[in-house]
Design goal:
mainly beta, globular, 8-stranded mixed beta sheet
């Protein structure tokens, strides 16, 4: 049997809710600071910083972060005073009007590729990945497509029970498995997302 190939990480894609209801496309609009110079790509996990603006959630392997949700686009006014609706934020728009579109539903479920902890090479896990906690691997997305290069870090034997890890695997994706027991994609939810945490940011 031939399986579709997942050639690389693509970020987090909202597909439904943990309770089985369909994802209806709801997003929250959150400002991006005019001084924020890091590109944010469609599918990146993001956090709300002190000051109430959006930023990428950590770098490298993110094992604990105040993740509020997943970035799925933005709007801003460019240097020619033209309004832009964009797949990703280029990081140098320097626009006080920049707004991020974020999926912050605490019940949202996302499809994501599995990669090694040290690089962006897609790898696999068996079905026992369901129910364990995973880290996020931040990668640099594509300025051509606007798509993320973020993935979930595939576990090794004996890992997955650390409460600080930001993801919980809730299902495997059989359509892109490389065999009946090797899955390159999983469905995850956010563990303890920022919107539900009792500790908030400082008021400034």
């Amino acid at each position: 049997m031939a399986y579709p190939t997942v050639s690389g990480p693509y970020g987090f894609k909202p597909i439904n809710r943990v309770d089985g209801l369909p994802y209806a496309g709801a997003i929250r609009q959150i400002p991006i600071a005019s001084t924020y110079n890091t590109p944010i790509f469609n599918g990146d996990v993001v956090t709300i910083t002190t000051g109430g603006t959006i930023a990428q959630a950590g770098s490298g392997n993110v094992t604990s972060a105040n993740i509020v949700g997943v970035f799925v686009g933005c709007s801003y006014t460019n240097s020619q005073s033209q309004p832009v609706q964009a797949q990703y934020y280029p990081g140098n728009a320097a626009a006080s009007s920049a707004i991020a579109y974020v999926v912050d539903d605490s019940m949202a479920a996302f499809k994501v590729a599995l990669t090694f902890s040290g690089n962006a090479t897609v790898t696999t896990a068996n079905a026992s990945v369901v129910g364990i906690n995973l880290a996020v691997r931040q990668g640099t997305g594509s300025s051509t497509t606007g798509d993320s290069a973020v993935s979930a870090v595939a576990p090794t034997i004996g890992q997955g029970n650390v409460a600080a890890l930001p993801l919980r695997a809730i299902a495997v994706v059989p359509e892109t498995a490389t065999s009946l027991t090797a899955f390159t994609e999983v469905v995850v939810k956010l563990n303890n997302p920022q919107i539900l945490r009792t500790t908030g940011n400082d008021y400034v």
